């Protein structure tokens, strides 16, 4: 669980403005990272905090930093360095939300946007969230004054180092006053991180939130051993079997992201590509499409996916395992966020086992083996989900008077067809077909007709009041109402039955 039961925000004696902001955002309890970090930061201590993505770390430094500010527009008091534009923008947005009642202005500084607008914004801001490259550029042009800085935060410091920002970070330090408070957040604490900490922090306190495992506890890890050839087809088998609501599929190269995306599209999936070749605008459009449910999958490289915040991703899929265990931890940290359960799935070919063993050994992640599903298993999984979906929808109809039908159901299920012509499986199947069509908005009479040939007598015996209710279905949840395949199915019931009998993947 992300938030803690034992602590509340009262523990930190926050200002009224901050409490109102937390209420407005909807944060009711602090996360573990926040409980660990907020009091230490408020006490003025330098901190190295190991925390995984999705732990609420942005607010863990955002809340105390804003609390400590006495904003003078145009005087930069707080600087956050982040590895990517996406993360910089997100952190900036979080600062603006947290500082909305204190009227603290934050600005994001990153490459690819107009200098003029950034200069204008700087004149009104107290907080700067920047990527190292563009910030050093502004420092060298003399367009930003960091001499009054009080607080520095290096966010996702391990990512910044792995992206080659070490020299830029060190160069930026020269523009900062020596007397300041510094924080370093990182998912993994390596020797390199410690060295960076020693250079930039003053007798820092080390806070390790989970020493045995940095992998999110809310993520279940599975892997499918594959041969390596025919991997795109294996991926489709996994997608057919799992039917993830939303996923990032990671590839190791840009070429692979394009190849996998077009393969998925050709097979009717709503997928798009996210890699460094795409302009910033395109990337933002793709992310928005995933958030709005217009697409289900993003096929991404690590660089493009760094720092993006999509909190209700149900799955992270490794089309290929990355070269390092740390990258695996980062990738899979994109699901299981904010207390939700997530699933990480990896296709592993024999030449990728090194990373696999590292992940197990270094991070104590329990990866569970699964074998690629057969067509029958895919069909069964789909049927099980279908049953759950219909049953859940029916259960939500609290007003349906079905008591009188209980006896009939018992006879059908317990005595079956004994002594009668009735085939219980077919009868239930027809009833389910009727229920599903009615749920989707078909009038009851049409639904019964569609389930013919011999619609069972029970449905025609349904009392009038019941028929009326069934004819006016409630607006169902978006996904339940029209998942991609379902729409097709509803439009062409014949084809659907075919698909259920023989999933496509084996073609
Ligand atoms: P982060 O680790 O900063 O990327 O945060 C991960 C997600 O947790 C974000 O969507 C935040 O909005 C959310 N979050 C942060 N703090 C809390 C909190 N105290 N309660 C609930 N959600 C939170």
Folded structure, characterized:
One of its GO terms (molecular function) is RNA binding. It comes from Lujinxingia vulgaris. This is RNA helicase. It is an enzyme of class 3 (hydrolase). It holds the Pfam family DEAD. This protein is α/β, with parallel strands linked by helices. It folds into three domains: 4-213, Rossmann fold; 215-373, 3-Layer(aba) Sandwich (Rossmann fold), CATH 3.40.50; 378-451, no CATH class. 46% of the residues lie in helices and 12% in strands. It contains 24 helices and 14 strands. It has a seven-stranded parallel sheet, with helices on both faces. A seven-stranded parallel sheet has the order 10-11-9-12-13-8-14, sandwiched between helices. Helix 12 (280-291) links the parallel strand 10 (271-274) and strand 11. Helix 6 (132-140) packs across helix 8 (166-173). The longest helix is centred in the last third of the chain and has 21 residues, at 375-395. It is elongated. The model is unreliable at 454-507 (pLDDT under 50). Residues 3, 27, 29-31, 34, 53-59, 309, 311, 337-338 line the site of adenosine monophosphate (AMP). Residues 3, 27, 29-31, 34, 53-59, 309, 311, 337-338 line the site of adenosine monophosphate.
């Amino acid at each position: 669980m992300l938030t803690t039961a034992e602590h509340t925000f009262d523990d930190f004696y926050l200002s009224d403005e901050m409490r109102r902001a937390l209420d407005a955002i909807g944060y009711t309890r602090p996360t573990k990272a926040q409980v660990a970090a907020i009091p230490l930061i408020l006490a003025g201590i330098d901190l190295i905090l190991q925390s995984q993505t999705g732990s609420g770390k942005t607010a863990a430094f955002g809340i105390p930093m804003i609390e400590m500010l006495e904003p003078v527009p145009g005087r930069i008091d707080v600087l956050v360095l982040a590895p990517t534009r996406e993360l910089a923008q997100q952190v900036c947005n979080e600062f603006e939300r947290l500082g909305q009642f204190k009227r603290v202005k934050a600005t994001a500084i990153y490459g690819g946007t107009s200098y003029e607008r950034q200069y204008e914004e700087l004149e009104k801001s107290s907080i700067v969230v920047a990527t190292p490259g563009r910030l050093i550029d502004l420092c060298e042009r003399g367009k930003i004054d960091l001499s009054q800085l009080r607080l520095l935060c290096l966010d996702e410091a391990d990512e910044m180092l792995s992206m080659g920002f070490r020299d830029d970070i060190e160069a930026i330090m020269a523009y900062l006053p020596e007397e300041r408070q510094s924080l370093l957040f990182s998912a993994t604490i390596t020797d390199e991180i410690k060295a960076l900490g020693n250079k930039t922090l003053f007798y820092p306190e080390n806070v390790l939130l989970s020493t045995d495992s940095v992998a999110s506890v809310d993520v279940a890890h599975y892997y499918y051993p594959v041969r390596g050839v025919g991997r795109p087809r294996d991926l489709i088998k996994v997608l057919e079997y799992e039917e993830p609501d939303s996923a990032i599929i990671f590839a190791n190269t840009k070429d692979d992201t394009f190849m996998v995306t077009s393969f998925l599209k050709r097979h009717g999936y709503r997928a798009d590509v996210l890699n460094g070749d795409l302009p910033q605008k395109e990337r933002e459009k793709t992310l928005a499409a995933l958030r709005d449910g217009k697409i289900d999958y993003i096929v991404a490289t690590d660089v493009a996916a760094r720092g993006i915040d999509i909190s209700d991703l149900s799955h992270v899929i490794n089309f290929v395992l990355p070269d390092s265990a740390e990258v695996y931890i980062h990738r899979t940290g994109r699901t299981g966020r904010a207390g939700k359960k997530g699933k990480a799935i990896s296709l592993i070919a024999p030449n990728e086992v090194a990373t696999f063993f590292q992940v197990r050994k270094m991070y104590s992640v329990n990866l569970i083996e699964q074998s690629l599903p057969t067509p029958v298993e895919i069909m069964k999984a789909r049927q099980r989900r279908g049953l759950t979906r219909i049953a859940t929808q029916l259960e939500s109809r609290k007003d349906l008077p079905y008591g009188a039908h209980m006896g009939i159901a018992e006879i059908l299920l317990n005595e079956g067809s004994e002594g009668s012509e009735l085939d219980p499986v077919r009868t239930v199947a027809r009833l389910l077909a009727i229920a599903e069509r009615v749920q989707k908005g078909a009038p009851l009479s049409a639904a019964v007709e569609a389930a013919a040939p011999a619609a069972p007598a029970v449905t025609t015996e349904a009392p009038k009041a019941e028929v009326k209710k069934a004819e006016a279905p409630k607006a169902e949840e978006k996904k339940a109402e029209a998942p991609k395949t379902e729409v097709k199915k509803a439009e062409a019931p014949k084809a659907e039955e075919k698909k259920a009998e023989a999933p496509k993947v084996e073609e």
